[in-house]
């Protein structure tokens, strides 16, 4: 049995059937995982191992940047500034092989991830749908990143 192919199929199916809120939290979870792996590799001077994780983290942040609708809510411009700063720091951490810089990026992302998870959990309860959709943290991402139809949905992800 080809376990790599089975795993790849499982991941494809998981992403294809996930809600927009779940996709967003999956992106953040993977971003934190990439940063943890990169930081550990840098601390062990395994820079060739750290670089792909930092590059993947940059890809995730680039995707978050490209799908952020800065007109969706008042805080979107601030979040865009965070993403832009984070992208610049990730590139710098990779080039400088700097584990502390990578750790600082992880510490910046973890509270964001936790907030998105909380917002997604609120959306999963029927009574919380309307209030959660009105909060700034629940808006700002467009459909393009997830291949969904246009319009704002859960967490501002169509």
Task: Give a short synopsis of this structure.
The protein is an all-alpha fold and 158 residues long.
Any overview of this molecule?
The longest helix is centred in the last third of the chain and has 25 residues, at 99-123. Helix 2 runs antiparallel to helix 5 (99-123) and helix 4 packs antiparallel against helix 5 (99-123). The chain is built from six helices and no strands. With 158 residues, the chain is an all-alpha fold. The protein starts with a helix and ends in a 24-residue tail after the last helix. It has one domain: Four Helix Bundle (Hemerythrin (Met), subunit A).
CATH architecture label: Up-down Bundle
What fraction, in percent, of the residue positions are helical?
Answer: over 70%
Uncertain regions spanning at least 5 consecutive residues: 128-158
Termini separation (Å)? 37 Å
Coarse shape:
globular
CATH class: Mainly Alpha
Q: How is this fold's topology laid out?
A:
Blueprint: H1 3-17, H2 20-43, H3 47-67, H4 76-96, H5 99-123, H6 129-134
Helix pairs in contact: 2-3, 2-5, 3-4, 4-5
């Amino acid at each position: 049995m080809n376990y790599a192919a089975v795993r790849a199929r499982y991941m494809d199916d998981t992403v294809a059937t996930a809600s927009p809120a779940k996709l967003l939290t999956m992106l953040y979870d993977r971003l934190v995982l990439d940063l943890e792996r990169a930081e550990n590799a840098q601390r062990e001077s395994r820079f060739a191992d750290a670089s792909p994780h930092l590059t993947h983290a940059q890809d995730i942040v680039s995707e978050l940047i490209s799908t952020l609708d800065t007109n969706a809510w008042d805080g979107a411009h601030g979040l865009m500034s965070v993403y832009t700063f984070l992208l610049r720091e990730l590139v710098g951490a990779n080039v400088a092989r700097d584990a502390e810089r990578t750790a600082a990026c992880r510490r910046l992302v973890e509270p964001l991830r936790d907030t998105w998870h909380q917002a997604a959990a609120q959306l999963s309860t029927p009574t919380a749908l309307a209030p959660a959709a009105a909060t700034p943290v629940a808006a700002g991402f467009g459909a393009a990143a997830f291949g969904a139809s246009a319009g704002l949905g859960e967490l501002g992800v169509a």
